[in-house]
Description:
Blueprint: H1 3-26, H2 33-46, H3 48-56, H4 61-70, H5 75-93, H6 99-117
Helix pairs in contact: 1-2, 2-3, 3-4, 5-6
Amino acid sequence: MTELLRIMVWRSIALIFLLLALIGIALPVMPTVPFLLVAAWAGGKGWPILEQKLLAHPTYGPQIKQWREFGVVRRTPKVITTVMMAGSWIMLTFSPIVLWLKLAVIGIMATILMWLWLRPEQIPEKFRK
């Protein structure tokens, strides 16, 4: 893969996820920060200026940095994610999808929620200023 093609792929990924994050700002049912995390990660691979702008953002920059350095996920996003997934579980339960697929999706969501709730909610004490 040529260098230009590699850069274009990373920039495309960064732009797609940045667009999804912008949609998430406008739509309350869609998250913003997870998409910004991916956009910053992809930007770091092929668009350092975008990555730096995301890290410097007054609202989202600190959350991206805390995730990168300590794996921190604040409680509010955890609660919002849990409520949204619970709503999805309820809708999925009443959908005409085959049972094995319902169970697979619910299992994946439960695994993600378990992982999410095991993430720290704040920076470890020894690293706070």
